[in-house]
């Protein structure tokens, strides 16, 4: 008989809704580990892990599992020196761990599917997470061609609640051994999982907005360790977290030779401020001559992609001379210009009275975005005989025909062109690079690579023009097509400045008095740094309230807590304990605690 430390009065169980065991010991253990890592509650994580019950779906039989498929051939994995060996290891039942920097082009869904098929051939299960339904559909189609129907399911919101629950039950019962899904599938109860994979871990959709806001990458890392599964982190770009996995030796790099990269990638050309200053046409039309040439030449051979950043980006301050972001001398947080004109740190709140650039000694700051957001309209007027298609938040295109046309898209909504785009134009580089975010450079490069990878290779005449300074690190990485090198340099810089993921951080947000009481009560690890608190900007009028925004009429503050490497678990435990004590004693309002907040300035 089980025992409990609880000494209060227990309530009787009045009704058992279903005999279906949906929370297995393995899934419960994973939920506990995620709750501890993110300073959350077990109940919140279980709610993320187990979908809402649908009685009708529960009554259906899931059938018996099909026998393992045959081992797939290496296919386009041959382009990577370690690719065939990685697949062979999965097929043998080993647990290889790799960070895969994929070559540009349309082959990556098939390559990810082959890794899953190799794992299934060993008699084990496989789980792959994609950032959105479009990407999941591409991998779904590729895996279906390799292993046939009935061996895998897709878990995403597109299926609807009842169908999604039916598929989830098929996985939980062991009838299906492979899952392709979006963020919510990170807890999918795959039996004897041999591979957990995530594509494009830098995409913000992999971070769950619901408490305790876990990141799918971290959940899969936990599963790889506790369930002894292989691990594959793939993408066209490379995050600093991925670079850290390689640097520590936890995972091996899975990359192509430079000759293969140069052959597959398009030619990338840059247009910076100096080029625009010398270009009379650019000053008049707000689009450089080189950009017009790339578009005009590309339309002779096929569709041309035009990427325009979404509206609403707030530029961060940077040195006018060298473009180095302006940072606080005390804690290295981002400097912000307030209404009165004074500079203050966005992290610790200290005023910066006499700023000087640490790189070049410059004293002038810049926040202006180079380029224009209305250039898509100008392109349409300049090429009246060419059809113009748009793809964005309200209407996302999956594919476009391989005929001459202009395709104007926001980042992440770029459709795939049949045969690839002849050219691409990446506009308003400063709109991405000037965001008040520690990941601004990494995110700009990721979005550029996503678009440029849809363009034909250099040998086929594919060309990309990016409107950004050629001297900037992300732009140089795009020109060289070297996302892994960019991530390694970013990681080294963050280690020097004490930024995540080298250090660990948590944000504590709420009413000023509640934040102060929470931090005073928490037994933080030795050497913990408290940065701030600083006011949380109120949401703009008319914009829907997002997680982390203060309620209407309330003024919130946010403090950051930074600890040394190895103290992340202690930090999460301290904040979780302090939060629980406040709730039990009913002292003030609850505060929002987030471990590894993605929106650091």
TrEMBL record:
Swiss-Prot/TrEMBL keywords: ATP-binding, DNA replication, DNA-binding, Metal-binding, Nucleotide-binding, Primosome, Zinc
Binding note for cofactor: Binds 2 zinc ions per subunit.
Highest rank taxon of the organism: Bacteria
Molecular function terms, GO-annotated: 3'-5' DNA helicase activity; ATP binding; DNA binding; zinc ion binding
Coiled-coil region list: none
Cofactor(s) required for function per UniProt: Zn(2+)
Gene Ontology biological process terms in this record: DNA recombination; DNA replication initiation; DNA replication, synthesis of primer; double-strand break repair
Pfam families xrefs: PriA_3primeBD
Domain Primosomal protein N' 3' DNA-binding, first and last residues per copy: 10-51
Residues the entry annotates as binding Zn(2+) 2: 328, 331, 345, 348
Location of the region described as Disordered in the Swiss-Prot/TrEMBL record: 530-557
Residues at which Zn(2+) 1 binds: 319, 322, 357, 360
One annotated Gene Ontology cellular component of this protein: primosome complex
Subunit annotation: Component of the replication restart primosome.
Role description: Initiates the restart of stalled replication forks, which reloads the replicative helicase on sites other than the origin of replication. Recognizes and binds to abandoned replication forks and remodels them to uncover a helicase loading site. Promotes assembly of the primosome at these replication forks.
Family stated for the protein in its record: Belongs to the helicase family. PriA subfamily.
Protein's UniProt name: Probable replication restart protein PriA
